[in-house]
Structures are given as structure tokens and as C-alpha cells.
Amino acid sequence: MVHYDHLYEETENANVRFLGFVSEGTRYDFGIVFTHKFYGKPLVICMQTGQSTLLSSEDAVNPDYLQRIFRLKSESEAEALAHFFQDHLPTIPFEENQY
């Protein structure tokens, strides 16, 4: 039998936003989970593919990353999605770790 060390278990009431939109013939449906975990980055879930990532508006400036994570067919789709996320995701203030 495999032994697992329990790392954490927390319950949080999270704010969830669902967004659906169309860009040049492609439909997108995303769920965005806003939580206090993950250094303030929302969890973005593509409802069509099930792909998810932690993403802030600063991260969304990289269309190549979005294309790979969300399995987009073209660069233009990724660029359109990058612009959308830059407008709809929060910026994350830089905070130094207190160690």
C-alpha cells in the first residue's frame, strides 16, 4: 500500500465567473475561479476542453502559452484570447515572500 503525507485541506467560498463569447467563428466558454490560494491568481478553466491554468492579466500577454494550454488552432485565436484575458483578469501585485 502506498503511503501519502497529507499536505493541506482547506475549504473556501470562492467567487466564480462564467464567460462565454465568440471570436471570428470560434466559441469560448470559460469558468474563472477567484480564490485566495495560488498567490491570488485565478484558476481559468476551459469548459470545452477541461484544460485549466492559473492565470493573471500579466500572464495573458503570452499568446503562445495560451495557445498551448488551451489547445488553440491558430496564433490569431491565441492573440484574441490574450487581449480578452488582459481585460477580464485581475493584475497581481508583487509581494515579497516573508521567510
How can the largest sheet be summarized?
Answer: 4 strands, antiparallel
Q: Give the strand order, joined by hyphens, for the main sheet.
A: 1-2-3-4
Q: Give the strand content.
A: 25-35%
Q: Give the CA-CA distance, first to last residue.
A: 36 Å
The H-and-E topology, N to C, reads as: EEEEHH
Unreliable spans:
none
What is the share of helical residues?
A: 10-25%
Radius of gyration from the CA trace? 16 Å
Give the mean pLDDT. 86
Shape: globular
Task: Give a written overview of the molecule.
- This protein is an alpha+beta fold.
- Helices cover 21% and strands 25% of the residues.
- It is built from 2 helices and 4 strands.
- It has helices at residues 63-69, 75-88, and strands at residues 15-23, 26-34, 43-46, 52-54.
- A 4-stranded antiparallel β-sheet has the order 1-2-3-4, with helices on one face.
- It is globular and about 50 Å long.
- The mean pLDDT is 86.
What are the defining features of this structure?
99 residues; alpha+beta; 4-stranded antiparallel beta sheet; 21% helix; 25% strand
SSE arrangement:
Layout: E1 15-23, E2 26-34, E3 43-46, E4 52-54, H1 63-69, H2 75-88
Antiparallel strand pairs: 1-2, 2-3, 3-4
Helix pairs in contact: 1-2
